[in-house]
Amino acid sequence: MIKSNFNIKILCAGLFILCLTNANAQTENDTVVNKDSVSIVSVLTDSTRLLICEFEGVPVIIYQNIKFPTDLTKAIMGEFAGVRVITENGQPGIASDIRIRGVNSINASSKPVYVVDRIIYNGDITALNIEDIAWLNVNKNINNWLFYGTQVSNGVIQISTKRGTAGYRPRVEVDVRFGFNFAPQRHEIITDPKTYTELGWLGLYTAKFANVQNKEIAVNFANNNLFSNMGINPYYNPFDRAGNNLINPVTGKMFDDVGYRYKPEKWSDYLLHTGKKVETNASISGGNEKFVYYTSFGFIKDEGYYLKSDFQRINALANFEYTPKRWLDIYLNIAYNNSVLNDPCQVNNNSNGFYFLNGIAPIFPVFIPNTKDYDFGEDHNRNFVYGMNPLALLENDKSKTSTNNLLLNNSIKIKLPFKLSIISEIGYNYFNANLNEIWNPFYGDAAGIGRRKLTNNIYHHLTARQMLRYDETFIGKHEIVIFAGHEIVLEQFTTNSMTKSFLFDPYNSDFDNYSVTDNVSGYTNKFKRERVFAGAYYNYAEKYFVNANMSYDKSPFLPKNRWYGSWSVGGAWLVSNEKFMRSSKKWLNYFKIYASYGVIGNDNFNFIVFDGTDIRPEKNSIFNAGIEINIKRVFDIEIDFYDRTISNMVIPIALHPSLGLSNVPVNDALMINRGVDFLLSAKLIHTRNIDLKVRANANYHFSKMVNLSKEMRWGKWQEVISPLKGHALDMWYLPEYAGVDKQTGEPLWYAYYDENDKYDAYGRINYIQDVFYYLNQDDANGELKHPNAKLTKTITNDCRNAASNFTGKKASPDVFGGFGFDFNCYGFDLSATFAYQIGGWGYDNIYATLMQDVQFGNYAWHKDMQNAWNPLTENYNTDVPRLTNGFFNTGNWGSTRFLTSNSALQLANLTLGYNFPQKYIKVIFLNQLNIYVSCNNLLLASARKGYNPFTFYDQNSRSQYLQGTTLQMGVKVVF
Q: Is the CA virtual torsion 894, 897, 903, 907 positive or negative?
């Protein structure tokens, strides 16, 4: 945990003053918070990274000029231990996915909850302007969750918006930025038509040679079929001679004098571009001792690097705090956002531009040769997705989402006699999204028809919370806080959609122009949550801290078992405040030990439980313990251990069809998650003009499924036989790749058979398809079917005989986190944040498809295919199987061959700025003038170029919009 420059004794005195679970930190001292909130954390505010210390709930800010991405979900990457940020969609305006300390369920949500100004926020998180955020904290301790109920069983991301400051004249800030979005590096696909054609020729040659073992016959076969129905239609031969006169049979390479009739365009030159990004933010704040205010306005236009993809947002915020009487405090927050998201409207693989970029052979042009007419491939049987051209679709297909988001938060605090206070909080979130999709009638997914779909989603979320609080300190040493409250949450979600097709006039896209209504649908879901909560906190002499909390919730989803309880207890010992530690003060300035334990329910299921079921909420039993140390006011260390047991996990079990139901959810599964968070920061240089801080965090995580669901086996309910038991959910269970047969070039896999049951009735080997199931299969008596199995491992060239088995590899990294530095020197600021992960294995779908043995022209190839087994050049010592033009296509069989290390390092954020000295800018009536350059996702080091394990959980997608690189330049002025 990072500490500020403030006196350590003062900090220690405030660290646990408000240690109760009932609130996140805010700028009033009526808030009770746990050690995770009462700490100094990396937060976002004022376009800067802040170090924030909360003393009696009041943020004390020390900041440096560091610019962040527009989307706060990407801004926290690498900043918090135990927080993993996955950007599955790099489209501007789409938020990243966040997991705190792993996956905590199978069928219930594992997502954390956002809390904005003490109220749970269920709107689009990209609607929040990061410039309006005063601070952000990722809360991982159950002691802080119960204030918000069981919805936050996966952690809380607490956000406080900016507020005015009393006693100062109005403060005006203007921040203008301009930048560019660049496409990321993709897999190393062969883009040269000549190189690609050489590999196509090799595939034909190798296929024939495998049959006849005669080089001359194989050469003639390859020459004559390169551009034919066995290869590519001669129409797509871009070279200045026929296919039988392109390749030198001695080298397998093209003759040097081969030229082009036309040069096929690179699809990336037309589908990708450099997107522009413009952003402007302005705010004014101020106030007096009774009334303070903060208002802001922001605009952003963010063009993606993929053509016709962009995001535009207008937002406004107003925060008001009014104290008309000493006993009355009123707070009002109003935030409005309007955004427009244009995406490529290419969800289908066949029309998806990224699928083309990752898959189309470089020999196929974008346009019909020597014209500017789009080539769809259908007239000449293009091998790859004929009838489609994603560039043409972008001209006519549209997908636009218009969103309005309104957030209203209000709180009133009335101070009563006898140290009592009443706090009433009401929060309302309104979200309205209109999706307009058009598929043109000329070509593509709706060719000859034309189709349009309108979808409207409306969401209302109302939270009403009332709380009575008692807060007293006795004899200067005993502090007691007791509170109790009631909360009601009302949610309503309405969706309506209409799809029409067949246009009267193909050039008119008005909705009334469509003659046929294909589908009209809609529904409304209403949910009501209710709960009571209470807690107590005791602090003795700023050395010993104890708290206890409970929440009794009513679930809107469970027909039975509606009411269920959650609770937690915690405590801490501030050892450095003990008398016997005085001799250590010279080097050990701060030393704290803390622990907590609690049980919290989780009813946030990924499906609506139907009536008649008897399921209960999933039960999370969480233990947390750790230490915090400050050494010589330079080094700050925090080690945090957690142990979570998830019982009553809801998992569906299969039913007999005669019952009329395919499956029913039951509380059968059990999983454990354990790990350690580690944080280190150091203030290496601290002088008047030079300051250097370094920081690092890490998380080690371990998970295991203990119990699984049940199935009807041998006439009774029994636990499913699954390799998941005893392993992590993301453990890879696949056939194992065994390399390449040097003699034939065939791919090989490992296979198993039982020595006691080796042959079938026809004398064939009984290969085992699933090792775990074979060894654990039982009979009607509950006995193992193969108790004396003696498995032998062998090698096969038939993928159908390969056995699925434990790989010993899981998708999630063993260790992940981030590190960085903040360096200030005579007005110059340089800051960097890196994200990293060590261990873990992902299945590289893109690479697997680029390495498949297919007919010439059917798919693109990776440059590694040039190392394929080759009888012509006698390249036999390789792990890349032979190319056979798809005649013997088994090399792409799913196996460990394409498991790729997820160890990676990414430069998430980099900023260089300069603050002009006051003596130069005050003459032009400025309080601050700052110019800066920032860059996000600048560099990536991974196991394979183009392979980004920060963008998926277990495997990548051939149609994925990868996160790109953003470069921005800006200027900020403060009046």
A: negative
| Rounded alpha-carbon distances, angstroms, from residue 694 to 635, 685, 939, 954 | 10, 10, 20, 31
For Cα atoms 14, 589, 632, give the angle at the middle one, nearest 5 degrees. 135
Reported confidence tier of residue 612, pLDDT bands at 50, 70, 90: low
**pLDDT mean over 844-863:** 96
Q: What is residue 473's predicted lDDT score, i.e. its pLDDT?
A: 92
3-class state of residue 13 by DSSP: helix
Cβ neighbours of 186 (radius 10 Å): 17
Structural contact between residues 186 and 357, judged by C-beta atoms closer than 8 angstroms = yes
Rounded to the nearest 10 degrees, what angle do helices 215-225 and 193-212 cross at?
Answer: 140
d(CA 870, CA 410): 73
Q: Please state, as a whole number, how many other Cβ atoms lie within 10 Å of the Cβ of residue 39.
A: 22
Residue that has been written with the tokens 């993301």 in this structure: 730
Q: How far apart are the C-alpha atoms of 449 and 233, rounded to whole Å?
A: 29
The string of DSSP codes covering 538-570 is: EEETTTEEEEEEEEEEE-SS-SSS-EEEEEEEE
pLDDT digits (tens, 9 = 90+) for 123-172: 888 888 999 998 888 888 888 888 888 888 899 999 999 998 887 689 99
Q: What sign results for the dihedral spanned by CA atoms 99, 105, 108, 113? A: negative
pTM of the predicted protein model? 0.89
Mean pLDDT taken over the chain: 87
Residue 249: pLDDT band (50, 70, 90) is: very high
What's the pLDDT tens digit per position in 33-58? 333 333 323 333 333 333 333 333 33
Q: How many angstroms from the chain centroid is the CA of residue 355?
A: 21
Longest Cα–Cα distance of the chain, Å, equals: 103
- List the structure tokens of 504: 């009267």
Rounded to 5 degrees, φ, ψ at 783 are -95, 150
Which tokens in the block code for residue 821? 């530095």
Cα–Cα distance list, 849 to 36, 70, 110, 894, 955 (Å): 46, 34, 31, 10, 13
Nearest to 136 by CA among 155, 122, 115, 153: 115
Is the pLDDT at 101 greater than 50? The verdict is yes
pLDDT at 443 over 90: no
Single-letter amino acid code for the residue at 146: L
> What does the pLDDT look like over 735-762, one tens digit per residue?
999 999 999 999 999 999 999 999 988 8
Query: How many Å apart are CA 206 and CA 199, to the nearest integer?
Result: 10
Residue count of the chain, please give it.
975
568's tokens? 């937690």
**What is the four-CA torsion angle of 42, 48, 53, 57, rounded to 10 degrees?**
-100
839, two tokens: 């261990």
Q: What burial class does residue 216 get, using C-beta atoms within 10 Å of its C-beta: 0-12 exposed, 13-18 middle, 19+ buried?
A: exposed
Write out the two tokens for 755.
């020595």
Q: Cβ neighbours of residue 315 under 8 Å, at least 6 residues apart?
A: 127, 128, 129, 132, 296, 297, 298, 299, 335, 336, 337, 338
* Predicted confidence (pLDDT) per residue in 462-480, tens digit: 999 999 999 999 888 999 9
- Give the type of residue at 273: H
Give me the sheet containing 119-121, strands edge to edge.
119-121, 113-116, 156-161, 133-139
Spatial distance between the Cα atoms of 84 and 98, rounded to a whole number of angstroms: 6
Residue-level pLDDT at 14: 32
- The helix (run of H) or strand (run of E) holding residue 845 is helix 845-850
pLDDT in the model for residue 505? 77
Between β-strands 420-439 and 398-415, what pairing exists: parallel, antiparallel or unpaired? antiparallel
Candidates 312, 306, 303; CA nearest to 275 is 303
Number of neighbours of residue 656 by Cβ within 10 angstroms: 9
Q: Report pLDDT digits (tens) over 64-81.
A: 333 456 778 888 899 999
Using a 10 angstrom Cβ sphere, with 0-12 exposed, 13-18 middle and 19 or more buried, the burial of residue 283 is: buried
- Residues 463, 426: contact at Cβ < 8 Å? yes
